Amino acid sequence: MVSFPGLAPIVRLAPILRSAMGPAIGLSLAFFALQPGNATEGATVFADASKIAAIGGSITEIVYALGEEKHLVARDSTSRYPKAALDLPDVGYMRQLSPEGVLSVNPTGILALQGSGPKEAVDVLKKASIPFIEVPEHYSHEGILEKVRIVGKALGVDARAEALARELDAKLTAAEQQTASIKARKRILFVLSIQGGKILAAGSETAADGMVKLAGGINAVDGFSGYKQMSDEAVITARPDVILMMSNAGPPVSDDELFSNPAVASTPAGAARKPIRIDGGYLLGFGPRTADAIHDLAVALYGAQVAD
What we know:
Blueprint: H1 7-11, E1 31-35, E2 38-41, E3 52-55, H2 57-65, E4 72-75, H3 99-103, E5 109-113, H4 119-127, E6 132-135, H5 141-154, H6 158-177, E7 187-195, E8 198-202, H7 207-214, E9 218-219, E10 227-230, H8 232-238, E11 242-247, H9 255-259, H10 262-265, H11 268-272, E12 276-279, H12 280-284, H13 290-302
Helix pairs in contact: 5-6, 6-13
């Protein structure tokens, strides 16, 4: 995805990869494109929010959580929650957008998660006559609150967004505190896929890395960012206690395929043969449901040790 080496194997997973899977690549708050050749950067409010195309699953979830779904005229294919969003026209996968597809719904504004692409398509959209606001993606507690506030401001509902941010702040804080007293932290290897017998795993600056840390775990992988294939030696050296994967994601990796991998079989996680599988959008979305996802992952990791 964005800045990933070895893009080809990941593109094959495009229908199930979430916006949360690319490393954050910038700190700008928004882009607001007006007339071709006359783009204005820094504006964060749509002049007309009546017909918004939402690009990015967490963006769509936030719009619904704010009660502003009436503004939506389209979504991207990563926007699968809430169920009602599936009734909206689908303009394609957020990292493989077609400008024609997005513009075909005649939006009055485009609200896109950072990392949407390809760059050429986004550049075309930013230069069109449709206002384009880009929302930063940071895989953290504060990153979620920032997204809520930016989406709320774009739609002109700042006060409602601030109330939602306070609510989510309290939930996230409580979820993180549930593992605060746990001393023996588990080492987690997030496996995106197995390609040619090699593990494609999550390093730093990924949604998976952020979730593992928020749930009280340790990412067993260090030394690289993004999603990369690991050598057998690197997998063994990582010594994961647990393998974490997405459920309902394709192509599926069975337990037999996972644990027949010689490198995985040589780790504590391989000996346990109990992977944790959680819906990708829920686990890696970094949106309104993330506090619940943190709790569920923590319970899967530590069971009764998780505080109420």
